[in-house]
Write a structure and sequence with these properties.
This protein is of the alpha/beta class. The protein has a domain at 2-156 and 184-215 and 261-276: Rossmann fold. Helix content is 40%, strand content 19%. The chain contains nine helices and 16 strands. Helix 5 (159-169) packs across helix 7 (219-232) and helix 7 crosses helix 9.
C-alpha cells in the first residue's frame, strides 16, 4: 500500500514520518517544497504521478488570528486546495485522510462535542476548515476526516514550547482559564491516524471522527502541568506564577471557543485506540527538548 503524506515538515507531518517509519507501508513524504497544495494544477499532476492508495493531508493554514486579515490564503489552503485534493483522490479511487479542528464548533455547548453535533465556526480559520470538510464530503472520494485540538509536541511552534520559552524569562504569566479543551500530543495523533489504515481496505465507510486528549483542562491548567514537569526535571529552578485571566481580558483578533472539548469515544470504539494522554505527552516533549549540556530548551 502506497501512502502519500502531504505537509511532512509540519508538526504532525514530522510525527507521521517518525511513526510510519516503523511500519511496512511504502510511504512518500512531501513538504511544501515538493508539493505546494496551493498550486492546484501542479498538485494534481504530482499526486497523479505518485498514484497513492492513501493520501494523508497534514497541510493546513493554522494562523488563527492572522486568518482574520488573510482570508484569501486561509480559504485557498484550508478549503480550495482541500477540495482539489479530494477531487484528485476521487479520480484515482484512493483514500483521503484529512485533519480538521475543534474550531468548526462555536464553543457554547456544555459537554464535549460529538461528531454529529452542529457546526458553527466563529472565525475565518474555523470557517475555512469547515468548508474543507464539506468539500471533501461532496467530492465523492473515500475519506476519513479526523478533528483534533490543541496539538503540541517537541516539533514546530505550539503552546508547550511557547510556555517553556516564557518560563525561563518571566516570574509571572497571565494565562486564560475559562477556555476548556483537550490537549493532543502530536505523536499520539500520528499513531491514531496510522491505526486507521488497515481498516480502509476492509471498510468502505466515509466518516468524521474526533481524536483528542484526555482529560480536558483549561489553558492555565495546561500551562501549570508544563511548568510542573519542567520544574520536576530541574529545567526550571522555579516555575512561574500563573495568574488565571478570562478570555475578555486576553483579547485576540479571532474569537476562541470557550468549550473546545472533543469526545473521542467513537474513534476509540471503532479503532481500539485510546485518546491521547497529554500529561504523558508533556513528559515526553519536555525530555526531548531539554539539552542537559547547556540547561536550555532546544
Amino acid at each position: 500500500m502506497r501512502v502519500l503524506v502531504l505537509g511532512s515538515k509540519g508538526q504532525l507531518g514530522r510525527c507521521l514520518c517518525d511513526q510510519l517509519g516503523k511500519t511496512q507501508y511504502e510511504v512518500i513524504y512531501t513538504s511544501r517544497a515538493e508539493i505546494n497544495i496551493s498550486d492546484l494544477v501542479t498538485t494534481k499532476k504530482k499526486i497523479t504521478d505518485i498514484q497513492p492508495n492513501i493520501v494523508i493531508n497534514a497541510s493546513a493554514y493554522t494562523a488563527v488570528d492572522k486568518a482574520e486579515e488573510d482570508r484569501q490564503t486561509a480559504d485557498l489552503i484550508n478549503h480550495l486546495a482541500v477540495a482539489n485534493i479530494a477531487n484528485i483522490c476521487n479520480d484515482l479511487a484512493c483514500w483521503l485522510i484529512h485533519i480538521s479542528t475543534d474550531y468548526v464548533f462555536d464553543g457554547t455547548a456544555d459537554k464535549p462535542y460529538r461528531e454529529d453535533d452542529g457546526t458553527n465556526p466563529q472565525g475565518i480559520y474555523g470557517g475555512s476548515k469547515l468548508n474543507g470538510e464539506l468539500a471533501i464530503q461532496s467530492s465523492g472520494c473515500n475519506h476519513l476526516i479526523i478533528r483534533t485540538a490543541w496539538v503540541f509536541s517537541e516539533y514546530g511552534n505550539n503552546f508547550l514550547k511557547t510556555m517553556l520559552r516564557l518560563g525561563f524569562d518571566r516570574e509571572k504569566l497571565s494565562i486564560v482559564g475559562d477556555q476548556v479543551g483537550c490537549p493532543t500530543y502530536a505523536p499520539d495523533l500520528a499513531k491514531a491516524i496510522i491505526c486507521t489504515l488497515p481498516f480502509l481496505e476492509l471498510d468502505q465507510q466515509n466518516e468524521i471522527y474526533h481524536y483528542a486528549g484526555t482529560p480536558s483542562c483549561s489553558w492555565a491548567e495546561f500551562a501549570q502541568s508544563i511548568f510542573e514537569e519542567a520544574e520536576r526535571l530541574k529545567i526550571l529552578e522555579k516555575k512561574p506564577n500563573i495568574v488565571t485571566i478570562t478570555s475578555e481580558e486576553y483579547l485576540t483578533r479571532a474569537k476562541r471557543p470557550i468549550n473546545s472539548q472533543l469526545d473521542s469515544s467513537k474513534f476509540e470504539a471503532k479503532f481500539g485506540h485510546k485518546a491521547s494522554d497529554w500529561k504523558l505527552g508533556i513528559q515526553a516533549s519536555v525530555r526531548s527538548l531539554y539539552n542537559p549540556a547547556d540547561t536550555k530548551i532546544v
